[in-house]
Specification:
By secondary structure, this protein is an alpha+beta fold. The chain is about 25% helix and about 25% strand.
Length: about 350
């Protein structure tokens, strides 16, 4: 039972880990400078879940554990392959760090700029069985769209401009660089990736019938430009849910005072460039990890369902206070009320 793997996958409590030791600053060029760093006494923690394929024994134990979620293949991966899920998880983590760096620097008054990247397919907009020439039929997750009807689309705004004058039902020509798994590319393979031409039929947007779309959800490939380099080490960790924790940790490291006070704090939630905190998955499992880490305050998004919040509070126990926040400013307000130092009026 312990040796035989079956098509069952778990979402289990992971770890609550300090962000500060993973942060590094470096000058952009020789002779450049970095801002002064203020090491916090109690650094904020980000939280992970653990997932993997189960054996027969693990599945039975998981079903008996109230804090382990046992999924079928379809429930765990949906229409994606495990490789797609892993790749998109790493892409989401990269985007999460970029958004955190941008929001944190803007908050403390440092120069930061977001730059759009390539148009990469993260998901499809499909309804039932894919129709002929629909995006679901001709594109794949990870593909990069470089042109539409021969017009260059190096970024998402460029693609939207070209799409602006087209109507649903119209067949367009897409220039696409198919996705290649990095694990399958040898270090000696330095040839440029091949470009292919695809015909696709536009569809009406599900949210705005007046707008025509290709039928894809693009990945967030934006990158941030800063006056110095910021590194956040997240080897083998994927997903966007650490955005809030990363943002708060960067603000804490680059401003005088102790943002968290004497409290041990963990946080989860995505971070958008406008400072909004978004919902995440695995909240109950993360609450268990926070409890086991010794943290006493857990900041979570307001977008989580009420029933999930109730279960998370039960899993965390009376020793952990769970507070929902919708924005970075709300999170900073909660920390200030909890004994943390407020941000200085100006930061250099």
């Amino acid at each position: 039972m312990a040796a035989v793997r079956i098509p069952r996958y778990e979402v289990a409590p992971g770890e609550a880990m300090a962000v500060a030791p993973r942060i590094s600053f470096a000058p952009l060029k020789e002779g450049g400078s970095v801002p002064e760093r203020f090491v916090a006494e109690n650094g904020i923690k980000f939280v992970t879940t653990f997932g993997g394929q189960l054996s027969i024994l693990d599945s039975v134990l998981g079903w008996l554990d109230p804090y382990v979620q046992v999924d079928t293949y379809e429930e765990h991966f949906g229409e994606r392959t495990p490789a797609d899920t892993r790749r998109l998880g790493y892409q989401s983590m990269f985007g999460s760090k970029q958004a955190a760096e941008y929001v944190a620097m803007k908050k403390i008054g440092l120069k930061a700029e977001l730059v759009h990247g390539a148009v990469i397919v993260e998901a499809m907009v499909c309804e039932g069985k894919p129709k002929k020439l629909s995006a679901c039929d001709v594109l794949a997750i990870g593909d990069t769209i470089t042109k539409l009807n021969g017009k260059p689309t190096p970024t998402l705004p460029d693609l939207l401009r070209v799409l602006g004058g087209l109507v649903a039902g119209e067949i367009v020509t897409l220039t696409v660089v198919p996705y290649s798994d990095p694990d399958e590319i040898s270090e000696e393979d330095d040839e440029p990736r091949k470009v292919v031409i695809r015909k696709a039929m536009l569809m009406k947007s599900p949210t705005d019938p007046k707008r025509s779309i290709i039928g894809i959800v693009p990945a967030d490939t934006r990158t941030v430009i800063l006056p110095f380099e910021v590194g956040i080490s997240t080897v083998d960790i994927g997903g966007p849910s650490a955005g809030l924790a990363f943002t708060l940790a960067l603000i804490d490291e680059l401003s005088r005072g102790d943002l968290l006070g004497k409290t041990r704090v963990a946080a989860t939630g995505t971070m958008s460039p406008d400072g909004k905190v978004g919902a995440i998955g695995g909240l109950v499992q993360k609450a268990v990890a926070v409890r086991d880490s010794g943290a006493t305050l857990f900041l979570v998004p307001t977008g989580q369902p009420d029933e999930e919040i109730r279960k998370a509070r039960k899993a965390a126990g009376s020793g952990v206070k769970i507070v929902q926040v919708a924005t970075l400013d709300e999170a900073l307000m909660v920390l200030s009320k909890n004994g943390g130092d407020p941000l200085p009026a100006s930061t250099r």
